What does this fold into?
Amino acid sequence: MLFLRFFVLITVIFQFNIYAQKKHQDDNIEYYTLLFELNNPNKKETNQIELPGVYKELSSTYDTRLITFEKEFNITDVNIIYSLVIENSFTSEAMVKINNNFINNNIISGWNSHDINLPNNLLKKGINKISIHVICTELEGILDGDIYLKSPEEIINLNGVWDYYLNDKFINNIKNEPTQGFDLLSFGDLDIPYHTSNDLDDSKWPIASFPSSNEMLFDNDNFNGAICFRKIVKLNKVPIEDYLIKINKGIDDYDRLYVNGKLVGKTDCYSCERKYVIPKDYLKKENLFTFFIVDKNGIGGVNSEIILSNSKELLDISDKWSFKKILEMQLLISTKILDNKNSFFNSQQFNFYSLSGIKLNFKNLLIEQKTNSNYYLLIIFLLLGTLIILLVYYSIYRKNKVDKPLKNDIIDEKKHLFIRSDRADHKILLNEIILIEGKKDYVKVSTDEKSYLVRKNLKTFLKELPTSKFVRISKSVALNKEQIEKIEKNMLFIKSGNYYVIGKKYNDGIKKLFSLNKKL
It folds into this structure.
């Protein structure tokens, strides 16, 4: 309509303060070789397990578990093209080897099913071996679907007994207890090899010493983004043993550490201790240490001194780090005149404002690039158009959604629940339930003594429980209200000491509930 002259759109814009670069991927093979000690000639003690299935005894906490699963299979014709199929989901991510060779440099995510083509040159006639190197950062490990090789001519079933062994040396070099659930670095077209090499001249970058907050470095209380920190670390001699880099009070929120261009460790955990083992083969007398640190919510930064040590030496390397902001996340408001008859791709139709009301230069929102500017302009407007459609669809969905009440008084009076798990019915007292986690087509119900896997989704299962006793805190987690201990930022702590991320959709409701309980 004509009287609707303006459409106000609130959208998240990532302003990339970098020049257009060619995308560079981490050397995942090198990183997995480090984590799983694949260059170690010593043979590890193996055990056996049935897959698909639950391997919760291998990963009973959020602590990382590095697990290698291996199985032999027979190939009669090497001229046939095979693919590896992993149905449903597993926890949490993995890389695959055939006959001790990685099939590619890609990490496969546990959230999806996979159908992966296998290079013919890795297979041989007769007995072959598949190795799946799994990084598990969940409360439990599970492989939920069938595993098999397929070709147009046959299917080779890999279900059944697998050998497995654990890799413990580098379990602290990767940790994932996310505060926001995404890696901001993956949004940028960032040249990692360049930023971690001696070719980059950082002599004119400002200098920081730790501990320090990112907000203080940039004099910006609302800073959210990514920073590159670099420092030359000199040792007395070429190392003959591994070193340990330690930050007792951790980093807020996410970091990656590279030593001489090699990825050593990464953690997504709000202020968790950092404790990365650096192999002696990665080090020399003069070394370039590079931290990429992402601050995603609230005050962030390096919270204590950075200590580098081995059995004979201890170095405080907290001072004189060169730093530069490489990504910044900003919330902007844009307005568009709907009755303007000019082309949709005319930038004059749009005005951009910061939340403080300052009008922003449209050109400054674009990636700095002297050529192909029309190409990038087209991409940005396509993204804006997609965001408009998604936001309109979401607003209609929210408006039409009706919250159906649970079965009120009858459910509220229940003191126990019967659930079907492991081919048996179990009677569970509601007061004994601590945590309920949704995992695709099933839920995990945790008590002090045991956990149960139930073939229902979280939404359906919660309909059987009283809302007076249980509260949903995110898309995949619900808790017993009696277990709630405290809330810090967007983290909810329970009596056992574990903590969970509060989803943005549930944040206000949880805090109101907590405030009400405190008054009572």
Observations:
- The CA atoms of residues 74 and 272 lie 45 Å apart.
- DSSP finds seven helices and 40 strands in the chain.
